[in-house]
Amino acid sequence: MAPLATAVAVLLSGCTSSPPAKSPTQAPNGTAAQGGTVTIGVWQAPTTLLDDGIVGNLPFASVIAAPVEEGLLWYRSTAATATSTSEADYWSADLATAVPTVADGGVQTSGCADSAAAMCVTWHLRQGVRWDDGSDLTSHDVCDTFEFHWLAYGAQGKPSPTPLASTTGWNQVTKCTELDRYTAVVDFKSQYGPYLALGSGVDGILPAAVLDPLLASGGDLGSSAASLDLTKGSGNTAAFKGTASLSTVLDGTGPFVMSSDTPGSQVVLVRNPNYWNQTGLAHLDKIIFRIEPDLATEAKDVRSGAVQVGLNLGLAALPALDAAVRAHTAPLTVDPVAGSGAEVLMFNLCATDGGLCDNPAAEENEDTANATIRAAILLGIDRQAIVKAVAPGITTVPPDSWMNLGASYLDGAAVPTTATDPAAANSMLDAAGDPRNARCGSAPDGQDFRAAKDGSCLVVNLGTTSDDPVRVTEESMIRGDLAKIGINVPAAFAPNLPAARFFASFADGGPLATHAFDVALYSVGLGLPGEPDTSSSSWHGDCGGACLNAAAIPSSADLGVGMNFSGLNDTQLDSDLDLGRNSADLTARAHDYTLADERLATLLPAIPLYQQVIVNTYSSSMYGVVQNDLVPDFNTAAWYCAGGNCAG
Q1: Beta carbons within 8 Å of 263's beta carbon, 6+ residues apart
Q2: Which CATH number does the domain housing residue 534 bear?
Q3: How many domains are contained in the chain?
Q4: d(Cα 417, Cα 420) in Å, to the nearest integer?
Q5: Helix residue ranges per DSSP H, 465-608
Q6: pTM of this prediction?
């Protein structure tokens, strides 16, 4: 990757709004050097390697596992999917030989071998793939994985001995059949739209050599030890050999193989010379994931060169990174990548949720539940100024609903991008009967703050993650903008809490999960490549008890498992989201989610400030890096360093 020092320096100076030039992925001489070690900083250490989507959903756990653990389908680069025309475009064939769809016959919604199945998906596997433990990949691995996640316990109504982070799909998958050694057929009770994600991506398929005895004994995957000799399949004598559970050892099929895990210190992966894709063998000898105590330490180690790859360093780190590059004290490149989501202002709508939030009335702000006030807030905030202040030229203001960020195949033509217009916002509030009132106090411009129709002063509290200086800056800018339209945002921002407490669970009293907020500032995005169904967890309202896991409003009624923090409850939106989930036809799904996107733009349960931007850094000696915003090291086999020296 060529240095981006000049581009980033200009961006941060505010002299231009042009995006940074993309880094070349190939060395000038066109030859990929062999050898070398890359150290990747990890500032959110997983408690277990199974946090990569099995017992937890920690992005850095997926980063550690991605070079080793594969799935039926694999990720594509963010650049390659920027103008995709289908959800299928976000995936590439990996352990499977093709991406199955209704259009190509890989997915059937009638005529399945099991007449009780409303949908069946046929997976054709690559031959000649070996697990690091030495066993061959077959359809038995696929069906064991589906048995472990969806059939052995969830379908039987029994809790899994392994505390799974998500069992989405448990009431849809009904059977997995090993049609032959390299063909597996998965049956579904009804049409299930997000089928591509089941068994795909990091840790998508697990080794039957480990799962067979586990399923037979009813054990916990995180604590059940197995004898693992990873030198057998990989042929690398530095690979792990011993007894361990998959919570501390990765057994995969990828271009790298596990060597060691030193808790709290580092995880070491080494090259897999027997990787099934012999044309895509890894160039690097070794990848070291260095466990950092916090983000600040990682940013310091990136600038010193102790860490060659820094991931998700945050917008607040950009000025110091740029200064280090300009001073030639840091041999690195800064490479921001657009994310599949947005930085948003989330409103508490529980005052109009029909009782689903079950919150005390004191925590239900009538002002934020008022659609006119939300529309006025959208008009009143200068989002372009926020972008210029925190990420000039690196990101943009998205449409009023942002479901197509990370799902570019959705037609967002009918979703507007509202421009800042304080005059229109003031007129809107005047017409709605929310006049300025002297007893509500004065704004900095000398004008009175507003009172609502019922005579109460219009006061909106704003909170965010207090340990993110960029968000704290944004709070002050938003407060100033809203004061100009007569909305009082108290300077004592609330709830302003460290991220761990801000995002705490319902059981732990987290302000989002318990709806103890008026407006909250944080990021919302897709959790899976190109999959808008993940938006259901943010917006689905009353489902009559039929919601899948997180697709509900958190309350005591559902034990707080829901992820709809806003309390939005809209029948039309729920119908569009359900239609998208319950269709296997990717074209029909795109239409349904486009309608949902348009409905969200009308309802405004949240206001997008700007598209997410992820700040990653790489040694200036590194080449072959292609970015994916969800799994930034998805293509480590292609990484290499000039002369095999990655230090820069």
Answers
A1: 248
A2: 3.10.105.10
A3: 2
A4: 10
A5: 469-483, 499-502, 536-539, 571-581, 586-603
A6: 0.90
